[in-house]
Each structure stands twice: as C-alpha cells, then as structure tokens.
Amino acid sequence: MRILLVEDEPRLLRSLARALREEGYAVDTAADGEEGLYMAKNCDYNAVVLDVMLPRLDGWQVLEGLRQHKQTPVLMLTARDAPRDRVRGLDTGADDYLVKPFDLSELLARLRALIRRSAGQARPVLEVGEVLLDTRARLVSHKGKAVTLTPREYAILEYLALHRGEVVTRTELYEHLFDDSDDSLSNLLDVHVFSIRKKLGAELIATRRGVGYCVRA
Ligand code: CA
C-alpha cells in the first residue's frame, strides 16, 4: 500500500514516515500543500494523510483540489478540535479526521480501515482459501496455524488479497508497495513472492507470465 504524507513539521513527518514504513507501507512525503496536491493528483495512492495547517495551500484547499480529480481516501490531521472544522472536513470530502496530538496506533488503525473500505472490504479479515489475513493485527494464518510474514511479504499478500480474482500487474505492485527510499534488494518482487509461497503454499499466488500475479477469488 502506498501512502502520501503531507505535513510541514519535519520531525512529525519523519517519525510518521518511519512508523508507516515499519508497518510495510510505501511512503511518499510532501512538506507543503502545493507539492502534496501535485503528488496526490499524479499518483494513485491508497490513502493520503493530510495536515490542515500547511504552507502554500492549506489542507482544505488540497482536499478540494484533489476531489475534482480523484476519490483517494483522505485522513485529515488537525490541531484544532472545533466541531465546525470536523464538519467542514467531512463536507469537503475527507474520509476521516484525527485531532493532534494523536496515538500512532489510532492513526494506523484508521488508515487500515480506510484502505479496506476503499477496496470494498468492510470486514477486517480477508479469506483466501485456507489462508486468513487479519488486517487489524496484520496476522496471517494457514489451516488455522499462525504464519510469520515479513512486513514486505505481508504488504504484497494483502494487496493481492484485496484485489483477489484480478490480475495485479508487476507495475501496479511496484507503484503501491515500494517507495523511493527502498534499496534495490527490497525491490525484488519475485523473491518475496517465492518466500510467501514457501510459507503459505505454492498454489496461493498464481503467476501470469509477463503480466503479474493473481490470488484466486
Ligand atoms: Ca502543520
């Protein structure tokens, strides 16, 4: 899953980006509203975390601009806890709203829910044959037994499971799962898929040669 973070406080931006990467997300960052809007319009993010108080364009303007083009899920961050702002955020097309200071665990939970809902999956547990993915706890089990995946392996499997029945191209996986901070080793998609198959069974992920991967519906 690829996330765009738009936040002008460098320390908060860095710590959020690091926390999200540790969870297995690919993360792009923007430090002002203009850059954030440009990036959000030009790349298919799974979600945008958008601060309200930003230089150049504020969060409301970014949201309005984005909504003329895209329905990317947006989680607004604000220091102001006025009900008026909350209503304004939701009216302008924000999908969720979090007041600073917030718990990291709450941000992560809300992001997972946003991404799940935007993929048309209201239930937090995804079932693919005998494999279960609990997207809240990011836990995977196979035939009732817990299986440990690396964050990167989990991210790949979750993306394929959210799009089960569809062929997901390699380009799409790269765009949604890897960001510019990744080194070349972590970009080896085939190695990750090989490892997932070893842990969960070879038949789970089918290869469409020259195109991509598919998890059966
Ligand atoms: Ca700010």
Summary, kept brief:
Helix content is 41%, strand content 23%. The protein is α/β, with parallel strands linked by helices and 217 residues long. Strands 2-1-3-4-5 form a five-stranded parallel beta sheet, with helices on both faces.
Report mean pLDDT, rounded to a whole number: 89
CATH architecture of the largest domain: 3-Layer(aba) Sandwich
What CATH calls the topology of the largest domain is Rossmann fold
Determine Rg (CA atoms, Å): 18 Å
Low-confidence stretches: none
- N/C terminus separation: 20 Å
How would the global form be characterised?
elongated
H/E series, N to C? Answer: EHEHEHEHEHEEEEHEHHEE
Category from helices, strands and their pairing: alpha/beta
